[in-house]
Amino acid sequence: MSEPSNPIGQSVRDAATALLKSRRTIHEFDERVPPSALIHAAVDHARWAPNHYRTEPWRFYLIEHTVGLKIAALNAELVRAKSGEVVAESKLRRWSAMPGWLTITCALNPDSAREREDYAACCCAAQNLMLYLWAHGVGMKWGTGKVIRDPRFFEILGADPLREFAIGLFWYGYPSEVPVQTRRPVSEVLCTVAEH
Ligand SMILES: Cc1cc2nc3c(=O)[nH]c(=O)nc-3n(C[C@H](O)[C@H](O)[C@H](O)COP(=O)(O)O)c2cc1C
Q1: Residue with the nearest Cα to atom 26 of ligand 1?
Q2: Contact 148/132 with Cβ under 8 angstroms?
Q3: Closest ligand 1 atom to 167 CA
Q4: What is the pTM of this model?
Q5: Residue ID of nearest Cα to ligand 1 atom 28
Q6: How do the domains of the chain map onto residue ranges?
Q7: 2: CA distance to ligand 1 center in Å?
Q8: How far is Cα 80 from Cα 91, in angstroms, rounded to an integer?
Q9: pLDDT tens-digit profile of 151-191?
Q10: CA atoms within 13 A on the CB side of 12
Q11: Does residue 145's CB lie within 6 angstroms of at least one atom of ligand 1?
C-alpha cells in the first residue's frame, strides 16, 4: 500500500489501527471514577469530528454523580411501569453504581435532511470520544433507552427538548470486564461496484 499523504507515521498508524478494532462497549466497570480532565480532553477531541456545513450540532453534558442518580431514579420509574418493582429495583441498583455519566445531544432542525446529517456528525463525535477514552484505558457504554426521550430527562439536564434531542446516555469508567465481539466477514458487507 502506498504511503498516505497525511503526516501520520507508521507507529501512529499501527496504534490507531489497533484502537479501532479493540474498542468494545463496556457493560461492567470498577469503582474508580476517571478524572474529569480526561473527559474534558476527550470532548475536546470529539468536537473535531466531521460535520456538514460546520454546524457543530453537538452539546456534551458531563453529568455529576448525584445528577446521574436522578436519571437512574427516573429510569426506574419508567421500568417499574412496564416491568414491575423487581426489575425496576435491579435497574436502579445497577444504574446507581455507574461511575461516570455523560450525554450528547444533537440540535433539532426543521429540515430533516440537515438533521440527519447533524445526527451523523454527533455519532462521529461519539466515536471520537469513545476512541479517545479507550486509548486512555477508559471504556464507555452508549445507551438509548426510553429515558433519553422523556421530557423529565431534559429537565434534569437543564436542556431544551425543543432545541435538541439526546443521541444517547453514555456511561464511562475503567472496565472490569471487556466483552468479546465478532463481526461478519468483510466479504458479506463489501461489494465492488463495477461499470455495467
Ligand atoms: C446508536 C447506538 C445505540 C446503542 N444503544 C445501546 C443500548 O441501549 N444498550 C446497549 O446495551 N448497547 C447499546 N449500544 C451498544 C451496542 O450494543 C454495541 O455497540 C454492539 O453490541 C457492538 O459492540 P461493540 O461496541 O463492543 O463493538 C448502542 C450502540 C449504538 C451505536
Answers
A1: 24
A2: no
A3: 1
A4: 0.95
A5: 142
A6: 34-172
A7: 34
A8: 10
A9: 999 999 999 999 999 999 999 999 999 999 999 999 999 99
A10: 5
A11: yes
